[in-house]
Q: What sequence folds into this?
């Protein structure tokens, strides 16, 4: 795995709304290969560690509560230019400004409940992928 992967989580609100399958289809239709996939629930510790960079920000506690409120789908996606291309498919963090055709335009309800996460750099994609998956769970 190198600069051609990104990591995503389909968030609890999108899962509750039954959008998990539709989001996975948008990902595959967007040309991404799913090389690792699991349905899981984040523990409080895991959510706090995953979003540790946001600790202290006004939305942090709400984000951790939300991300532990139900199952998520975690996945590693492979494609050339994966990080940038997936962020384009996701749309902006705020669904109000997300473009038509993006995952967040279709399924996000607000800044926190914004349907899905995407890594922000190649370096973080690797860190996040390894946070959620063992080597045996990755089909690269
Ligand atoms: P995500 O891509 O998972 O990465 C960090 C998350 O923090 C982001 O999506 C949002 O869910 C959340 N977030 C970022 N900025 C804000 C904000 N200003 N208000 C509420 N939630 C935010």
A:
């Amino acid at each position: 795995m190198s600069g051609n992967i990104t990591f995503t989580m389909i968030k609890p609100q999108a899962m509750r709304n039954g959008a998990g399958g539709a989001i996975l289809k948008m990902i595959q239709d967007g040309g991404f290969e799913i090389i690792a996939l699991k349905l899981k629930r984040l523990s409080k510790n895991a959510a706090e560690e995953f979003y540790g960079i946001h600790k202290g920000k006004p939305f942090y506690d709400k984000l951790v509560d939300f991300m532990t409120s139900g199952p998520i789908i975690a996945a590693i996606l492979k494609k050339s230019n994966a990080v940038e291309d997936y962020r384009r498919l996701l749309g902006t963090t705020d669904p109000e400004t997300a473009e038509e055709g993006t995952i967040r335009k279709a399924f996000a309800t607000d800044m926190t409940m914004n349907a899905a996460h995407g890594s922000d750099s190649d370096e973080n994609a690797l860190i996040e992928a390894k946070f959620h998956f063992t080597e045996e769970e990755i089909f690269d």
About this structure: The chain has one domain: 5-137. The pocket of adenosine-3',5'-cyclic-monophosphate is lined by residues 54, 59, 63, 93, 111-112, 114, 117-118 (CB under 6 Å). The chain has a mean pLDDT of 97.
